Amino acid sequence: xxxATQDTxxxxxxxxxxxxxxxxxxxxxxxxxxxxxxxxLVTQMKNQDxxxxxxxxxxxxxxAQLSTVTGIDKLNATLQALSDxxxxxxxxxxxxxxxxxxxxxxxxxDLTGGMGFGGIELAQSVDRAKVSIYDKAGxxxxxxxxxxxxxxxxxxxxxxxxxxxxAVADGNYTFAVDATQSGKxxxxxxxxxxxxxxxxxxxxxxxxxxxxxxxxxxxxxxxxL
Length: 225
What we know:
Blueprint: H1 4-46, H2 56-95, E1 101-105, E2 108-111, E3 116-122, E4 128-134, E5 140-145, E6 152-158, E7 171-181, E8 184-185, E9 188-202, E10 205-210, E11 213-217, E12 221-224
Antiparallel strand pairs: 1-9, 1-12, 2-7, 3-6, 3-9, 4-5, 4-7, 7-8, 9-10, 10-11
Helix pairs in contact: 1-2
């Protein structure tokens, strides 16, 4: 019978030895670099011309260069460790969003069960805002008057009916927003609603799957609902 405890301990010991070996190698490499530098410096001082000895400033400069290189190596190692820690924290934070609804940049509307949701982001307050919903063929399905809206994010809901009051089929639709203030057009950012279904850690960082959208970064999330 295989002893699981022994196997676990052996694996732990193996990983510990590998980690220790890796750490020792890095330390040894840094120490060897300093040792070689000092040997070269001592050799240079032993073989210098007595009539034209090395300037103290040169020795100090070379020692400073060694110290700078060593410091940069330590700084790089610290920054890498900090970066790895931040990536891990981002993954944990993003994982807590699974199952939550979010608003992200986008013009899509997913009509499910006769209900669709979306949002808009306004840089300034407006006295009129209107959402126009279109089908896949680009035909206008429904217009929703949001009235006056303050600056910031505003959410809207669609009951799944067209302009004539008839229920339309569930599926993917798009929308556009028209907003004005005192008769002048105001820039609007359309926001698409979706449920976060998964989190992926890739080379570009943490990415979310939101409804039918893939590769959504945390910076693209405008609001968590």
